[in-house]
């Protein structure tokens, strides 16, 4: 019933949201004398913040229409090159004939859409043929499409790499570090021809026993049955995925916002102040961030519970007990693919050292192929978005992949 209560509440707010929208337009109309007063601007700003905070956000667009390749501005066109029931492989096709290495960016399946990595893609486009995993919202996936669990995630990664062919580079951002690292170990053991040339993992939970965060502690202090009975619910009618059991995105969003509630409240107060002062540029920047941040997707029950159990509770990968379809995953088989672990000094989701743990799990990989970097002064999202990502981390990723060819 949890999902139903959420839907009822969302629809119940519709009249309030519409009233706020109309009131905002009224008090922003230059023909209204009150729009030129401090009181009028405050009413308009308050209504805009209210409407923006209660709006439902769908899947955002990447909107990366252009990039620069070797000093030339070229068009970028999105194309889906491989479709699967729970995700698709998207290619950012550039309008030039410059041949560069392929880069597969594996987006997290942890509540947000792949567009959360817009800044990541944008920084890579001038230097690679970029592909990204575009995961599908579970509530939009009909029951007849079957189930999707952690093993399926690993299979999807290997299928996408096989589609790209030999020599591609892979970047796993946060949560997918575990399934991508698993896929690499399996492909190395099989001597798979599509084995990637390099793997970059950014803020990934390879071993959450190292420097555990509040998120890690939350997973270990409750039995798995608590998660199943309290945060997994059924998709209601009339969604295409109706009756599917999911971990809803709105709960994931609520959890993340609760971790830094005072910070989010401050940002909304600042947005209100910017609107009153007429600083539209600052207000627009805050709105753009939250439009992306509040755009969330549902995860299948089996994938969510397996991730909580195997990654955050039992730590099967670093304990050498993780299996894929009954087959033991052996990271010591990784002997050729270069690995780069990137972490943020202030990361409150994946603590420093959790990603670096992958290097200790690969004893047969030469030291020259193991790299680690901690970016000072950034949290989790600063690893793959923002100024520090563009100016410090992205150049290091480019240098790393160049050496790994």
Oligomer: single chain
Assign the CATH superfamily of the largest domain: Alpha/Beta hydrolase fold, catalytic domain
Order of helices and strands: HHHEEEEHEHEHEHHEEHHHEHEEEHEH
What's the overall average pLDDT, rounded?
A: 91
Helix content: 40-55%
Q: Low-confidence parts lasting 5 or more residues at pLDDT below 50? A: none
Q: Based on DSSP secondary structure assignment, what is the total number of beta strands? A: 14
First-to-last CA distance: 52 Å
What is the CATH first-level class name of the largest domain? Answer: Alpha Beta
**How many domains make up the 3D coordinates?**
2
Strand content: 15-25%
Structural description of this entry:
This protein has 405 residues and is an alpha/beta fold. The chain folds into 2 domains: 2-56 and 249-293, no CATH class; 66-219 and 299-403, Rossmann fold. It is 42% helix and 18% strand. The protein contains 14 helices and 14 strands. It has helices at 2-12, 14-28, 38-54, 118-124, 150-164, 177-190, 214-220, 224-230, 249-259, 261-277, 280-293, 301-313, 357-360, 387-403; strands at 66-69, 72-84, 87-94, 102-106, 129-135, 169-173, 198-202, 233-234, 245-247, 299-300, 323-324, 327-328, 338-344, 370-375. Strands 1-2-3-5-4-6-7-13-14 form a 9-stranded mixed beta sheet, with helices on both faces. A hairpin with a 2-residue loop joins strand 11 and strand 12. The protein is globular. The model has no long low-confidence stretch (mean pLDDT 91).
């Amino acid at each position: 019933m949890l999902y139903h209560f959420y839907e009822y509440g969302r629809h119940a707010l519709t009249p309030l949201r519409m009233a706020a929208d109309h009131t905002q337009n009224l008090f922003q109309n230059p023909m209204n004398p009150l729009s030129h007063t401090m009181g009028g601007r405050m009413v308009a700003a308050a209504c805009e913040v209210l409407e923006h905070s209660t709006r439902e956000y769908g899947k955002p667009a990447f909107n990366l229409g252009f990039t620069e390749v070797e000093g030339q501005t070229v068009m970028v066109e999105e194309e889906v090159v491989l479709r699967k029931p729970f995700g698709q492989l998207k290619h950012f096709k550039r309008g030039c004939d410059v041949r560069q290495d392929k880069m597969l960016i594996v987006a997290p399946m942890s509540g947000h859409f792949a567009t959360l990595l817009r800044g990541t893609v944008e920084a890579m486009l001038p230097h690679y043929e970029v592909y990204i995993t575009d995961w599908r919202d579970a509530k939009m996936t009909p029951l007849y499409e079957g189930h999707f669990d952690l093993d399926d995630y690993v299979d999807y990664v290997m299928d996408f790499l096989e589609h790209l062919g030999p020599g591609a580079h892979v970047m796993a951002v946060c949560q997918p570090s575990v399934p991508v690292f698993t896929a690499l170990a399996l492909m190395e053991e099989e001597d798979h021809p599509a084995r990637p040339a390099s793997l970059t993992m950014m803020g990934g939970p390879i071993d959450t026993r190292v420097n555990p965060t509040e998120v890690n502690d939350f997973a270990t202090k409750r039995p798995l049955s608590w998660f199943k009975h309290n945060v997994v619910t059924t998709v209601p009618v009339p969604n295409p995925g109706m009756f599917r059991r999911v971990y809803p995105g709105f709960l994931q969003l609520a959890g993340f916002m609760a971790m830094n509630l005072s910070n989010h409240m401050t940002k909304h107060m600042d947005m209100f102040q910017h609107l009153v002062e007429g600083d539209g540029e600052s207000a627009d920047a805050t709105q753009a961030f939250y439009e992306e941040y509040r755009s969330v997707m549902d995860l299948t029950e089996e994938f969510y519970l397996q991730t909580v159990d195997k990654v955050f509770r039992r730590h099967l990968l670093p304990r050498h007990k993780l299996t894929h379809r009954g087959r033991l995953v052996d990271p010591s088989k990784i002997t050729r693919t270069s690995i780069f672990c990137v972490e943020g000094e202030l990361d409150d989701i994946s603590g420093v050292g959790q990603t670096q743990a992958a290097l200790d799990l690969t004893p047969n990989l030469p030291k020259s192929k193991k790299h680690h970097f901690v970016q000072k002064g950034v949290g989790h999202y600063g690893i793959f978005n923002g100024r520090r990502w563009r100016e410090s981390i992205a150049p290091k990723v480019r240098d790393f992949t160049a050496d790994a060819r």
